[in-house]
Design goal:
This protein is an all-alpha fold. The chain contains 8 helices and no strands. Helix 7 crosses helix 8.
Length: 203
């Protein structure tokens, strides 16, 4: 089971964000700062699925918002603003990784430790986080966008610039792998996986 970590009352306000974007072509830096704050956490989590290097994450977010600042007037409004901004961030991340000679984040058992929070919900979140690292980066990103960001298949296809069928295939294979990985990871740490990953939560 994978949930968005945002409660319903904390989900992005599309109307308010579009209002901020509409102020950018006039050079409103306060609006840019507000939009930056609204998206920083989402972008950091998304780009963090591709690299652990904090300097690259920061670089990508800054590059993304430089483009948002420059291209705000080109946003046509025929898609969610988050789809447009995450698409920019995705392309910036790929470019930054190439420039730094980095490969997208691969699994590193030594870099992750489960938390000691006794709550089953938090423990499961740890197993999911570890399981995501075991997936190919494209599958990891579609899960983050679908369940972390609440994006539709169509929106994910726009963000990652690939056919919708490719997104559906990546989601299917990612969920299948994750359901198999969680019990293995839990056994490796000597803790139960609570059986939650085996549920069928199709979009």
């Amino acid at each position: 089971m994978i949930h968005s970590d945002l409660p319903p009352d904390a989900r992005p306000d599309e109307h308010a964000e579009r209002a901020l974007l509409a102020r950018l072509p006039a050079g409103d830096r306060a609006a840019l700062a507000a939009l930056y704050r609204a998206y920083h956490r989402r972008l950091a989590r998304f780009v963090g699925r591709m690299t652990r290097r904090a300097d690259i994450v920061d670089e990508v977010i800054n590059d993304c918002f430089w483009i948002v600042w420059q291209k705000a007037a080109t946003f046509r409004g025929d898609a969610r603003l988050s789809t447009w901004i995450l698409g920019i961030a995705y392309r910036c991340a790929l470019k930054a990784l190439r420039q730094h000679g980095e490969e997208p984040l691969a699994d590193d058992d030594g870099a992750w430790q489960p938390s000691h929070d006794p709550q089953p919900e938090h423990e499961l979140r740890d197993w999911v986080a570890k399981g995501l690292l075991k997936l190919p980066v494209e599958q990891r990103l579609v899960l983050e966008l679908a369940y972390g960001g609440g994006h539709s298949v169509e929106e994910i296809a726009a963000i990652m610039q690939c056919p919708e069928g490719t997104v559906k295939a990546r989601l299917f294979h990612a969920r299948t792998k994750l359901r198999h990985l969680l019990p293995v990871l839990a056994d490796r740490q000597g803790a139960p996986a609570h059986g939650a990953a085996g549920g069928n939560h199709e979009r």
